[in-house]
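Sequence in, structure out. Go.
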Amino acid sequence: MGHAIASSLSGFMFARSALGFGEAGVFPASIKTVAEWFPKKERALATGMFNAGSNVGAIITPLVVPWIVVRFGWRWAFLFTGALGFAWLILWLLLYRKPQDHPRCTQSERAYIEHDSQSSSGKIHWAQLLAHKQTWAIAAGKFMTDPVWWFFLFWIPDYLQRVHGLHLTQIGLPILVIYLISDVGSIAGGWFSSTLIHHGHSANAARKWAMFLCALLVLPISIVYRVSGLWPASILIGLAAAGHQGFSANLYTLSSDLFPSRAVASVVGIGGMAGAIGGMLIAEIVGHVLQWTGSYMIPFFIASSAYLFALLFIHLLSPRLIPAQI
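Output:
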């Protein structure tokens, strides 16, 4: 039996690692696509919209997967959800083209897309990117803010059960509300900075003002541990999640502001790696803090302040958002 359990655990770890390896490429490719198809003044809104789509999936999954498990068995839940990724990939390969290669993209549309973009040619190596402060600005922002989102994803259900006494079957509605609010924040954060650029503000001012307001939206989560009511606490968490998503939409967009489209996916990948390292650290920190104190006070305080510190580091490393000279 021990050997069977070990084999099952090994198989699960391999499958989960493969999933992580495969899904890691989605956001870099998505941000690069936005850089290829949208001018600078529209990229944050486009990013906010596709970023909100990940939350829609998180809302739908708890509703659909249990039905599949009950009706067809747990193996089919894995097969069905995994097959969706392959279906999306096939459609992407069949339908996606760059603007210059798309038969329905006119010359005037290409000129509109590319008028404020940096042109680049040749292969850009990671070592070249690591030499630029702009890369480290994005990596620092991801390192400090991605762990907060991981905290929301993995620890908020435990918080709702531990503090508000909800059973596993009762947390669905609060989680749904939190994700819906975060979707609004994702789109609104991107819309705000894009609107500022439309009205003549620089990308530097637009992105940083949007990120600053999103960071302020997260601050009230520091008092959630003292809130006794379920719905007031859920609303505060939802606002913080909205702040994260709006901040994230603009942070992703910085990669296309600061680098030519050929380098965007690599820069986002570097930032994603920094975020994953931060996520591993926050998992350890929250686990130990809960074991020592039994309270969410410290994790919520860390979450509330992370975005202001991230914005500070971004500003110090790239005070005027001058594109990297590659």
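Check: The CA atoms of residues 99 and 110 lie 6 Å apart. The chain has twelve helices and no strands.
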